[in-house]
Every structure is written in structure tokens, then in C-alpha cells.
Amino acid sequence: MAYIQLQIDALCIAAHRSQTVLEAALENGIHIPHLCHDPRLKPGGGCGLCLVEIDGVIQKACLARAVDGIHVKTKTDVIVERRKKRLNEIFADHWADCIAPCSMACPAGTDAQAYIGLIAQGRYRDAAKFIKQTNPMPAVIGRICTRPCEGNCRRDLVDEEVAICFLKRFVADKDMQSSDRFRPEVKPPTGKKVAIIGAGPAGLSAAYYLAIEGHKPVIFEAQPKPGGMLRYGIPAYRLPKGVLDREIETITELGVEIRVNQALGKDFSLEDLKHNYDAVFLGIGAQKGIRLGIESGQSGGILSGIDFLKDIGLGKEIKIGERVAVIGGGNTAIDAARSALRLGAKEVNLIYRRSRKEMPAHDIEVEEAEREGLKLILLSNPTEVLENGRVTRIKCIRMVLGEPDESGRCRPEPVPGSEFDLDVDMVIAAVGQAVDGSSLNGVMNGRGRIGVDPKTMQTDIEGVFAGGDAVTGPWVAISAIAGGRRAAIAIDQYLRGEQIDIGPEKPFSAVKVGVNRDNLPEKDEKARINMPVLSISERLNTFAEIELGYSEEQALEEARRCMECGCIKQNQCHLRKLAIEYDIEPNLNGESMRHFKIHDRHPIILRDMNKCILCGNCVRICDEIVQVQALAYDEINNAIITMGSTSLLETACEACGQCVSACPTAALVGNMQEFTREYFWPPKIVETTCGYCGVGCQMELNIDGAGRVFRITSKSGRGVNEGNLCAKGRFGFTFISHPDRLRTPLIKKGGAFVEASWDEAIRLIATKLYEIKQSYGPDSIAGLASAKCTNEENYLFQKFMRAVIGSNNIDHCARL
Hints:
With 816 residues, the protein is an alpha/beta fold. Helix content is 28%, strand content 18%.
């Protein structure tokens, strides 16, 4: 075969005269974006993405022949813009989710669908492992999170949202109590030391991921025990300190050192750490309470919510008033109010200047607080605290909601003449938190926070990084954990001398805009499993944990309510990879997207034309390779349809899955049972030869973390089959893990099969075969092998029949 030479970008390569530019580039490891190229098919150019410039002319690389001496450019500014334009055109009519909405809502990017699916499969250790890829403290977060994931759960359109947080807690507790609990693999030591200020969620998260990378994190904590606001800001009835301690132990066992009673500005300075460590992370949080602004300062009857909760966490003796007023509407206010009730307050009123709807506290916490006796005084604002050596009353004024402010919430405005008094003897002000930056000269910004470059998490001081509430302002613990992890990625790259590139906060995902009950998959209504809790009488006067946790049976039932919204090909979709490569923004204009019904009645193939890019590969491979013509292109409606617009079952479809193998998206996929997909990616691949017939087709077993074959693929253009497989080869594998498959030998005794040991079964077979052979000769014995055995097993079986038994009466059954 004649070879030619051509230049692609700065690389000179050799190619066959018969090749296209795209084929020559791919053979030489040169990336040219494409979606519709398939070695089994003649080039079609349908996707329009493989554009290149050949001697000044822009062409499709899949249609341009490789010619001796040509100069090909793959990524000029014009080509990049035209590819982006084409990708945006595709996404304008791509009504699908790459990643489930619940997962996209998580500040840490934790894939809730994945760990719920693993729970549904009974793979609890794997579920904990998956969560800890992005969140090292799932037992803590499973108890205290504000659950933005659940607020985006599509199951709510059917009945109620899935209890995602409860499931996270279940699997975290289950793993923590296991003798084989998950421990991440730690890389060899790098010799690099990182100082971390603050043992709160951001600092602990950063330490966990830095330790995994082989670095030596040392945490400096001002308080007597680590945990930050997790220990000193969240009451034990929500987060038992034993749970917190155990999760911190899973971090320190990786080699993380924690030094307590070490305060910045008192025991060390930032300069000290810069001098003695290779990098510094600031995770000091926002632990400074904001004053109410109406304090007279005459008595000690007014506390900040932060200080009140901290004193409880430190075990200090607190003289609680009989009539307590808590000012604020956030989680700190609710925690302070419920704690006051447990400390013996006879009456606790929560005063909030907006309505119940605007309260930032989590709904379930407010509801439980009301059940415990908290009274809400809404649309009211304190104006004066009256004191006479002690707090006696608080003056308030009624409020009305006006126009929205910068936060998007309606601005509260006072109602003239609506003042009223409230008799109280203690006031707790939980109106906000701030960062104490008194010892952080050079890193604070004008908003009272630590300033960082969001692309590197680095402050204005080289080698000093920051994350968590000190950067974002007071927010939720899972956000601080996310900030610590992103900073750890940046610090690791910095310590290795690499350019810092931590990627976007959120991964790319197409968005299925305008989903409603009518266009969701059919699901029977099934109520959410309620969390077992202590009764009201059991919980007051004690800080015992209220929520008791799911049983295994409850967790499995709840996990199976998940609708698996995320795309099954999110980890290997070629379209999504190109969207990430070319920094495409997801299309949020639902009006431009057509809505197709998902066809899931076929037992083998699921068709979701909402994800189709009209490359035509499925139509062509069915026609040119399989020669069946079960699919067709509808020119009038610009869509791929079944031949005759009927059910796929009513066409000549052989269910071979060739269309599935040729589809670059998830428009055509195997119709798998619920909760059988794999979430750890890439899966283990074992190359083998199909055993169903004698052709010898090459294929790949895709094996999940539990050692289960979950799908079979093949490499296009490889092997005697050139990547093609029949229905048996591609889909005939479910028997391997089928629950009815025999795993113990059975021997018939007394007319019924009973379980037996392998020794007993083999001894019986050997005895019977010997007796038959002796009495009737070897030709009286026949053997029937099965395609459900491995090739090696079938080879040994025929060898046994011929060499040991002495019979050539051996056959093979290829039925599924």
C-alpha cells in the first residue's frame, strides 16, 4: 500500500493514500473533534465538527482525502468559532440532562444519583467511597445539610422528593460501623508540608484530600477540640459529637496532624507558617457574631447566637432565662432557640422581620422547633432592649414586605404606630456572622472576607490559599467542604510545580428545561420514608440526637424511589466531552427544544430521540452492515424514526444493538434494568472472545466495582468482527449475575434436589460416569456444553469428554 506524507499542525505524519485526513490524524494520535465517525461506515460528515483548514480552505476532515504534501490546521480561531457554533446548534435541540438535577445542585458536586444507585444495589462500601470523592464527612453532612439536592429532585413532581440526605447518613453510618470500612489509598509521601488554619469543615476537607496526595497537612485550631462550627455551632441533638469525632478520626488516620489551642495572632503568625511550611490554607470560617445594634450594654442578658452555641459546645454553665427572645430567621437562630428550650427556658419566642416563607432556616428545622414549643413572631423587628440591671423587655415594631432587595427577598419596612413590647429576661441575637480578619493583613478584601482568585483559590500572597466561609461569607457546611477540596486540588498542583487549573465549580451538563409530570417516565406514587425520630417528650431537657436513622430495609426502599434522571452515558458521551473542551454553556431556552416520547418498551433497546444529534449513524449501520433497515430518517420532521413509524418491535429489528454501538450520545442505549448501571468510571475492561458460536468475535466485558458484568462493548474496526456484535454477543450476559443462577451443586435425593458440597457432587458424577462407561462403553456417554460457560471451560469440557471419557459425542448449545 502506497504511503504519503502530510503535515497536521506542526507534526509531519505518514498516511495511506486511501485514508481521509480524519483517519490519518486518528491513527497518529492527533485529536480532531468528531461525533459521526465510525470505521465501519463510509464517511458522512453529518455532525459537521471535524472541520480543518487544508492549504487555506476549510473542509470536513472525514470527507477530505489525505494527499501527499498537504498542510492541515486543526484549530484556527475561525475553526474553533465554527465548531462552537455547531455545538450550540446541537444543544439548542437537545432536551436532556447530562447530570441529574440533584447532583448539579450540590455545592460539593457530589453525585447523589450515583451513591443512591449503589445503595439500591446493596454496595454500601462503594457508596461511601463514591461520596468521599467529594465529601470526606458524609455522616456529618447527612445530619446537618440544608439539602439543596432534595429541592431539585424530580421525584417531587410525582409524589415527594427522595430523602437524599437521610440515605447519605445511612450509608455513612453503615460504613463507619463496618469492619471493612472504606479507607482511601494514600499516595507515597512527597515531603511537602501544608499548614492549615482552622479545623472546621473547610480545613478538615483540605487536609483529607492533601493527605491522600501524599502531603503532610498540619491543622492549627484555636479551640480545645477540632470541628469548628460543626462542634461549637451545631447542637448535639442534630450532630452528636461522637459522630463528629469518628469522622475526624478517619481524616487524622491518613497522617493529618491537628494542634489544638493554637490561635492565629496569639500563638503564631501567618509569616511564621509561610516560613516553616510549603503552603498555607486559611479555613478560619466566619465565627464572629454580628451585634444586634440596639444593645445598651448594661447587662449580660444579650448574647450572640454564635457565642451562645459555642458556650454550650464548650460545656460552660449557662444561666438560661425563663422567657427568651431569639432574633433572626436562620439556622443559627433556630438552633439557639431549640437549645434554650432544652436548657430549661419556659418560653422561647423567635422574632423575625420577614414572613415564614423568607426564613433562610431549613423548613424541617423550623417545623420541629414549633413542635417543641417555639413561638414564631413574624414580620416584626426589635427596636430597643429595655434593661434595669438585667433585660426586662424588648420593644418591637410590625413590618410589611416591600420591593425585593439585592438578595431577591422582599425588603421589610416598618409599619408606623405598630410598636409592641415583649416581656423577656434573655435576648439571643442570631442576625449574622462575620470573618475575624484581625490577624490577616494582606489577604482581606473590602467585603470583610478573604480575597482569592476563584480559578486558583490563592490569595494575594503567593503560597497562601483559602476557602470556606472565610471566602464566601457564612453559608452551609457542604459549601465549606467543597471550598476546602478545591483549594486542596490547587495546593497539590502548586506543590508539584504545575500550572494551577482546578476547573469550573460545576461540571458541564445539558439541562432538561420545563420538565413536568406529563413528560416524566411513568412511576407509581410511593410516599417518602419518614425518618424515625424521638418523641417530643423524649427529646426535651436532653441534647440526645433526635433523628434515629434509617434501617437497612427502609434505606433500600427509599433508594429505589430514585428516578435516575442523569444520563447513563454522562461519563463517556462524546458530545458532552466536546462541550467541555469548547467551553459551551448549557442551553436554557426550552422553547427551542423539541420533546420526544422516550421509547422504553423494547426489551433490549431504549430510544430517546431528545438526545439525537441526527448524525445518521444508526440508520446507516442498520442498513449497510446489518441490512435490516429498521430505522429511517424522516426528512419532513428532521428526525430519526422507525421504519413505518411503528414500534421497534414491529420492525425487522434483530435487537443486535449495532445502532447502540454507533450512537455518539445516549439517544440509543441498552434498555437496562433499574439500578444496574455503573458509577465508578472508567470500569474494568476485560477483552475476550464471544463463546456463542464459532466466528470468534472480539468483545469487551465491562465490569463494575462489585465484579459484575454490566454491559458488553466492542472496539469499532477491531477483530474478525470489526467491532460488530450480534444480539447474543452484545446482550446475552445477564445470566452471569442472575439471582436464579445456581451457585451450589444440587443432588436429587428422595425425588427432590438438595444442596450438596462440591466434593460430594464431583464424587457422585465420577462414580456414575465410571459405572456407565464400564457397563455400556464410552460411546454411551454424551456431553452438552453451553455458551453460558467461558471458552476455557468449554475447551476443558470437550477435552475431558474426548481424553478422559473417550467419547466424541460432544455438542454445544448456543441458545440464550
